[in-house]
Amino acid sequence: MIANDLLKGTLRTIVLKLLADNGRMYGYEITKKVEGLSDGKIVLTFGALYPVLHKLEADGHIKIDIEYIGKRVRKYYSLTEVGRSWAERKVDEFFDFVNTLTYVLKPTPA
Amino acid sequence: MIADIIDDNVDRIRIEIINLGLTYEPLVDDVVDHLCCMVEEKMEDGDSFEKSYAKAFNSIGDNRLPEMQHQTLLLLNKKHQIMKKLTYFLGLASAIILLLGAISKHMHWPGAGIELTLGLLVIILGFLPLYFIVTYREQTEKKSIIYPVIAYLAIAVLLAAAVFRIQHWPAARIVSNIGLAILIIGFVPLYVVNAFQKAKKGKVNLAYIIMLLVGVAIIALMFNVKFGKETLDTYRNEAILNESRIFEIEQQTQVIIDYAIEREYRTLDEIQKIHSEAANLQKMIDEMLDNLLSSINEEGSSLEEIRKMDYEGAGRDVIVKSGWARDFITSAREFENSLIAIVDDPVTRNQIQDHLEFTGSVWFMEFGPEEVIYDPIIKIYYKHTDISKGIALAEYVAISSLMGDE
Question: A75 CB near a chain B CB, below 8 Å?
Fold first, then answer.
C-alpha cells in the first residue's frame, strides 16, 4: 500500500490521466482501474476521490453525463477541451517531478 | 437478476447514507452508485444481498461521509479557496520582508527596523488570522474555537512585543509579559490536553508544534541569549568592585588635599580647581546613572534588580539621545586638557591620559548609538563606574604630582 500522504498531491493528476486515456468513467470504475493498474498498491477511497471529481467539475476541467440504471443515477465523468490540455500539462509536470526526484534520490555513482 | 435486487434496494441505501450525515445531493448520487457497485461485486462472488450490503457499508466507516462532504464543500467554496491562497501569499510575503529586514539589519542598511516591523505586522494582522480561520474551517472533527483563538493571541502578542522592541517603544516589556502569560497560562495547558487527546487517536498536528517552537524561539530572543546570566553577573561584580575602589581613591585624594590645605601649598588653588572639576564630572556620572536607573519603571531600582533586566534601548534613550553622553565627554575632555596643561612630567601625563582614555575616540565609539543600543543596562552601568574610577585616579595622580613639585 502506498501511504495516503504521498498520494494526496497526485490524486488529481491520476484522475485526469485516467480520464484522458479511457474517455468517460464513473467513480467506482476509477477506483477499480487504479487498483488494477497499481497491482492493488493504490486503493482510492471514495472519501478522497469524489471531492476531487467535484472540484475538477466546478473548475470546468471535467464534465458529467448522467445515465439512469433503474433507480440509480450513474455519473460518467469525462474531460472537457480545457481539461484535456490541462491534463497533458499536469501529467508532463508530474513526470518532470518524478524524474527530478529520481536524480536526487538515486544519484548515479561517480 | 442481481441488478434487480440492487434496484429494489436503492432507496434504502440512499436513506441510510443521508442518515449517516451526507446531505449534498450530487455526492449522495455518487455514493449510492458507488455502494451499489460494491454490493454487486460482492454478490457476484456469491454472497447474499444482505451480507454484501453489510460488508459494503462497513467499509465506509462512521465519519467518512460527513468528512467527505465537508472537504467537497470547502473545495467548491470560492471564498475559502481565495482565503487559502491569500494565506499562502501573505505567509510568503511576510517571510520575504522579514528576511530582507534581517539582511538589512545585519548589513547595517537603512530601513531594517521598518522592514522587520512591516513583516511582523503582516504576520500578526494578515497571515495568522487567516491561517487560523482556514485551518479551523478545514477541521471536520469537533471544533473548539478557544484553542485557535488562544494560540493566535499568544503568538500575535509575542510578535507585537517584538515590534515594540524593534521600534523601542516603552511598553515592550509589558507587552511581552502579557504574551508570555497567555502562552503559559492559556496555550500550553490547552496544547498539552489537546496533544494527549490526539496522541490517543494517533494524530498530532505538526503545525501547532511548529507554532509552539516558534513561540519558544521568540521568547529566547527576548531574553537575549547574547548576554547570559554569567556575563551579566560579571558586569555587576565588577561594577560593585569599581565603586569600592572609587571610594578608596577619593578618600586618599581627600587626605592629600587636607594635607595641602594644612601646609598651605602654593598650588592649592590649582589643586582645588582640579578637585572641583573632578567632583563636577563625578556628579554628571551620578546623574546619568540615576537617569538610567529611573528608566526602569520601578521606583528606586537597585543594582541587584537591573542585573536581571536587559532592556535594549535604555542606554541609547537615557545616555545618548538625552545628550548626556555628549555633554559629559565634552566636559571630560576639558578636564583632561586642563590636567595635561598643569602637569609637566611626561610619565604622569601618560598616566592621566590612560585613566581618562574614555575621552578618546575608541571609547567614545563605545558610547555611540550603535553600540549602546545593544548593551544591557548593567553593562552601561559598569562602564560608568569604570569611567568614574578613571576620573578619580586621574585627579589623584594630578594632585599628587602637583604636590610633589613643591
Answer: yes
